Amino acid sequence: MLQETIRRMTGFIHTNAALAPAPMIVCNEAHRFLVAEQIKNMAFEGAPIILEPCGRNTAPALTVAAIHATKNGQDPLLLVMPADHAITDLVAFHRALSTGIEPALEGAIVTFGIVPDRPETGYGYIQANRQTPVSNQVYPIIRFVEKPDRETAETYLAQGDYYWNSGMFLLRAGTWLAAMEEFQPVMLNSCVNAFDRGNHEFEFLRLDRETFSSCPADSIDYAVMEKLTTLPDQSIRGIIVPMNAGWSDVGSWDAVWNIAGKDEHGNSSRGDVIMEDTRQSLVLATSRLVTCVGIEGLVVVETPDAVLVAETNKAQDVKKIVTTLKAKARREGSAHRKVYRPWGWYDLLELGDGFQVKRIQVKPGAILSLQVHRHRSEHWIIVHGTARVTRGDEIIILNENQTAFIPAGEKHRVENPGQVALEIIEIQSGSYLGEDDIVRLEDRYGRAFKI
After folding, report:
1. 3-class DSSP state for residue 334?
2. Residue 83 and residue 256: Cα distance in Å, rounded?
3. Do β-strands 49-52 and 25-28 pair in parallel, antiparallel, or remain unpaired?
4. Is 442 helix (H, G, I), strand (E, B) or coil?
5. What is the pLDDT of residue 17?
6. Sign of CA dihedral 316, 321, 324, 330
7. How far apart are alpha carbons 239 and 242 in whole angstroms?
8. In terms of DSSP bridges, do strands 370-372 and 394-398 run parallel, antiparallel, or are they unpaired?
9. pLDDT at 451
10. C-alpha to C-alpha distance for 403 and 425, rounded to whole angstroms
């Protein structure tokens, strides 16, 4: 979905666009290697990736992006797009974007309102002033409203001047910083300091943790946009451009079901799935066979981490499960079984008392850090490719079906000198197997003393 979000601009041409030349990604630092891999696969290496040490909602995220965009005295247009949306009609999307260019260049903050086709209760709404348009298909914003109940949503649909809040914006970077200075000076100051005190690490810009952690958390809507609708003589305008482009906020599983292709029984499935007497359901299998018998209106999602079963109309409440997982300090609430690193990835296959088993893949030419573990030993089995292994003062070459044992306290590293991916099965044993039992001595990726 991240790649699809970036591709959404492919083919867009506007003579006065003045858009930032390359995508900027703002993400949590825990996702940095996954994001970098996705960007690399699109041949966008070098695109700025700004790392948040903690979540502070969308207003600070846009602020640090705007700071980055203006650091060389430039003031480009920024198109703000969350990476969990689907848009099926790119022609209509580009048409709406073209409509918003001129007002954005003139200093307005443009948002795109989705023309509703049903009384949706899962989205917020924006009311447009259709009586006094700024220009053709460009309207002042009257107000933002939260997710309504069914009866209110039906009223909005009938009235015709309410649009779903897409969460997408078009604006000059300088316009946003001016709005932050006027409405959120404390937040702006925190973001400026976090940016200035941050450091470049490999291909990332890591914001200063202490400063950014103290930044107030708020959304773009609450921090700025809603204030624009209440000021009679505002210097910055908030306007809305209607969009009918096959949009969906794919932030919940019921939204996935709504946009997915369905069989004659209203079911959508992916993976190794067998269904019998099943209707109006979404069933996704990623690592094993999933069978469903006699169900209706359910979401079933199987992953190596966990299995979710929910009624379709309750799928948005999965966040309550995440809250419970975190409250119980469950690993599933904060981490996936498969973890990406700059050199590749590892997949936790088995975890038991005093041991765990990982499948490790190292990209061609990549190398892990030179490191030491205090509490665990490791046994490596090469299953594909060639490994150059450093173990203490020796360097050995291992091929398929060969092994190496690394005792606790021994410095070691592994490198892939070949042209194909190196795959290793790693068996760890010891009194403590946490990922923080790593002392890095050298690292190509600038991760000394960091996981």
Report:
1. coil
2. 14
3. parallel
4. strand
5. 63
6. negative
7. 10
8. unpaired
9. 46
10. 10
Q: Of 131, 141, 135, nearest to 101 (Cα)?
A: 135
Q: Can you name the residues that pair with 357 across neighbouring β-strands?
A: 350, 427
Contacts of 318 (CB under 8 A, 6+ apart): 252, 253, 308, 310
Residue type for 89, please? Answer: D
Q: Which domains does the chain have, with CATH numbers?
A: 2-249 (3.90.550.10), 253-321 (no CATH), 338-442 (2.60.120.10)
SS3 state at 46: coil
Listing DSSP states for 374-428 in one string gives SSEEEEEEEEES-EEEEETTEEEEE-TT-EEEE-TT--EEEE--SSS-EEEEEEE
Could you tell me whether strands 422-430 and 355-362 are parallel, antiparallel, or unpaired per DSSP bridges? antiparallel
Amino acid symbol at 196:
D
Q: Is the dihedral of CA 203, 205, 210, 215 positive or negative?
A: negative
Strand pairing partners for 370?
Answer: 442
For the chain, 451 residues long, the average pLDDT of each consecutive 10-residue run is 91 72 88 88 84 96 97 93 94 95 94 95 93 92 94 96 97 96 97 96 88 96 89 78 93 84 95 97 96 97 94 87 91 84 92 95 96 96 98 96 97 97 97 91 75 46
Tokens of 314: 């309750």
What is the model's pTM? 0.82
